[in-house]
Design a protein that fits this description.
Number of helices: 14
CATH class of the largest domain: Alpha Beta
Structural class: alpha/beta
Number of strands: 18
Strand content: 15-25%
Shape: globular
CATH superfamily of the largest domain: Metal-dependent hydrolases
CATH architecture of the largest domain: Alpha-Beta Barrel
Oligomer: single chain
Distance between the termini: 25 Å
């Protein structure tokens, strides 16, 4: 048995924080007691002193790139899930832009077999909406669902054909698959490498206007209204997108949305100096956009915080800005950056944990356990005040492409427990 004592237990569903001690036996939570009511401690194989720490349910990241198969030199299932548990995630959903893409049941099955062998946490495949992610022909949703896919997305590309996207929403609803939409009009964004604005002009770089995202957000909301099928908008980055999603929710359209920590932590000024680690798609936007993203999170317009963890090696990043690939890693920085929202009073602690756990699990329709007697013991223990400067040696991903290197962060995972087993114990 394991005893976790002295910590504050966060219930993201009920919105509560309580001082409690937790007893884990086997894979499940045996008891939750008021502090000081623990029986003899000599019966426990492991006692974790969680004084001044947060105890919360396992986090779920619904948007990661594990790069396997095909780009294992950037990341693989083993290294990516090790970074995940170090970041407090007990489950991740991996995007289909692999090589070959996850557009058929064989690739889905391969990912799950590899995960069974070497993953440190649960892995849920997201399959492609269209064959080859080319936007021409739908994949076999039924076969993909049967093989273990929990959602579909052509992440990295929009499905430009509106009729095809309509059929995808209808087909996915029938099969119980989440549809995750990458909203980008490539005709507007073509050649762009950062947000279209004064910073891009100053740096002499081609820009991507906010409307590139917003046009497709509006379209997919309308298609969701037409089909009455849910759609999930990925990596929201603009003020206009937040407003469109707000109006859709007020109208009762079944739309959900996510943003990534870099969209509420950084703006387009992070690119100054041609830092390719700040080159992401959609791009970092303006200060006003950042404030609206925070407002959208506070108001519940944005349901989920997901990392969009996108490893890129020096081969793709240590080049001229125009030639560099998009993407930054985020599994180990998501929690401290989200805790900043709590410190700023934008979210309560239970609200923040909900956006990182219960909400994404609910949208994907995957198992998730709260901290309750009899529940599966998926638990994360966090020291919210531990301050440190992020260094490469702290990062478990194969790739180190993050603009937060050398920056001071507050908040660190001390333990990640999955099904009653300590999978990760922090080295800080």
């Amino acid at each position: 048995m394991i005893l976790i004592k002295g910590g504050t237990v966060v219930d993201p569903v009920r919105g509560k924080e309580e001082k409690r001690d937790i007893i884990i036996e086997g894979e499940r939570i045996k008891d939750i007691l008021p502090q000081g009511k623990i029986p003899k401690e000599n019966v426990f194989q492991k006692i974790i002193n969680a004084e001044n720490m947060i105890i919360c349910p396992g986090l779920v990241d619904m948007h990661v790139h594990l790069r396997e198969p095909g780009h294992e030199y950037k990341e693989d299932i083993e290294s990516g899930t090790l970074a995940a548990v170090a970041g407090g995630f007990t489950a991740v959903a991996c995007m289909p832009n692999t090589d070959p893409p996850n557009d058929n049941s064989s690739v889905t099955s391969f990912i799950l077999r590899q995960a069974e062998i070497k993953a440190h946490c649960r892995v849920y495949p997201i399959a492609a909406i269209t064959v080859g992610r080319k936007g021409e022909r739908l994949t076999e949703f039924g076969d993909l669902k049967k093989a273990g896919a929990v959602g579909v997305s052509d992440d990295g590309r929009s499905v430009l054909n509106s009729d095809l996207m309509r059929r995808a929403l209808e087909y996915a609803k029938y099969h119980g698959l989440a549809v995750i939409s990458h909203c980008e009009d490539p005709y507007l964004s073509e050649g762009g490498v950062m947000h279209e604005g004064e910073v891009a002009t100053m740096l002499g770089l081609m820009g991507i206007p906010s409307e590139s995202e917003e046009i497709m957000v509006a379209r997919d909301i309308l298609l969701s209204k037409l089909t009455k099928a849910p759609v999930h908008i990925a990596h929201v980055s603009t003020k206009g997108s937040v407003e469109l999603i707000r109006r859709a929710k007020e109208e009762g359209i079944p739309v959900t949305a996510e943003t990534a920590p870099h969209y509420f932590s950084l703006d387009h000024r992070a690119v100054i100096g041609y830092d390719t680690n700040a080159k992401v798609n959609p791009p970092l936007r303006t200060e006003e956009d950042v404030e609206e993203i925070k407002k959208g999170l506070k108001e519940g317009v944005i349901d989920v915080i997901a990392t969009d963890h996108a490893p890129q090696s020096p081969l793709e990043k240590d080049v001229e800005f125009d030639k560099a690939e998009f993407g930054m890693i985020g599994l180990q920085t998501a929690l401290p950056l989200t805790l900043n929202l709590v410190r700023e009073g934008i979210l309560s602690l239970p609200e923040a944990i909900k956006k990182l756990s219960y909400a994404p699990a609910s949208i994907l329709g995957i198992p998730w356990s709260n901290i309750e007697i009899g529940a599966r013991a998926d638990i994360v223990i966090i020291d919210p005040d531990y301050s440190y400067v992020l260094e490469e040696r702290h990062i478990f991903s194969k790739s180190k492409n993050t603009p937060f290197l050398g920056k001071r962060l507050s908040g660190i995972v001390k333990f990640t427990i999955i099904e009653g087993k300590i999978i990760y114990e922090g080295f800080f």
